[in-house]
Amino acid sequence: MNRTGIDISTAPPYTVLWWSHLLGNPQSLYNLCSWRQDGTISVSDDVVYVTEVGTKRNGCCDRSREIKVDSSEDLERLRNDLLTKPILFHAKVQHLQEDDYVVFKHLKTWTAELAVLVNTKFPTIQEVLTSKLNQATQAMQEGKRFCLKLKFGEVVMQWYAQQVDPHLGLERTDFGSMTFYIHNCSSPINCCLNPLVIVCCFPLWLFGGSCYCIQRKMDCMDVSHCFRDIPVNSLTQDIKACSHLKNSFSIRKCFS
Predict the structure, then answer these.
(1) H-type helices in the chain, by residue range?
(2) Residue 140 in contact with residue 72, Cβ under 8 Å?
């Protein structure tokens, strides 16, 4: 039971609300948000709030939340928050829809800005978080370096793709802002681990990237988990109707 008097532990594992709807009615998300006197939104202390970000990390554009813990006490406080409080993400999603006709293809890019509440007390989520955080705690107590990566966005990617374009696959959807890196050293340099970068820059990668990967594996325990196939409850009735059509254009096919 939180300070608002609502038992969030019984909420769906994922709750999605159009961000503009939350701004118009902050109480609509289980009364976890309210108006400040200056007209801005205040988020309850009973929630782990993650704002939408788009920063450069390790030289690559990334949308993630990176948290460094310097002591076992820091990790314990973070662990308690993640296991007892829901996580509210302010995130953005983009989806490419392709309609294939006889003589041309029509491409549409849908974008949405969402409030996503993750109920970390939901059994499937709680079990994974407890296991991964236990690994991080053990590494911290043993004086080892670790990096825990938690990807919450895949669930919403699957759901959003079905809402706006049910006949196409997940690979056309891009979702940011719902990844956590928890570490006591640094997060990995994704460019050095990206298969596409390795293939394109293979000769050069052998001199630098391979050495980095070997050293990283020896010096740091990297643990990751991607949440998938978890039910999503939408408080917005028609997501596609509310989504913004960013681009729309046609490509003529060539016939031999």
Answers:
(1) 19-24, 72-84, 123-141, 153-164, 190-193, 195-200, 202-207, 209-219, 239-242
(2) yes
Tokens of 160: 């959003």
Q: How far is CA 63 from the centre of its chain?
A: 8
Structure-token match 């006709």, residue found: 101
Q: pLDDT tens-digit profile of 57-73?
A: 333 334 457 889 999 99
Quote the pLDDT of residue 191: 55
β-strand pairing of 232-234 with 104-118: unpaired
Give Cβ neighbours of residue 206 (< 8 Å, ≥ 6 apart): none
In 6-122, which ranges are continuous DSSP H helix? 19-24, 72-84
pTM (two decimals): 0.78
Three-state SS for 205? helix
pLDDT of residue 114: 87
How far apart CA 17 and CA 6 sit, in angstroms, is 18
The β-bridge relationship of strands 14-18 and 104-118 is antiparallel
* CA–CA separation, 47 and 41 (whole Å): 13
- Residues forming a β-bridge with 223: 148
Q: Token pair 């490509």 is at which residue?
A: 251
Angle between helices 72-84 and 123-141 (to 10 degrees): 180
Contact 239, 112 (CB under 8 A): yes
Q: What are phi and psi of 90, to 5 degrees?
A: -100, 105
Alpha carbon distances (Å) from 148 to 13, 131, 137, 142? 21, 11, 11, 16
**Cα–Cα distance measured from residue 55 to residue 115, given in angstroms and rounded to the nearest whole number:** 19
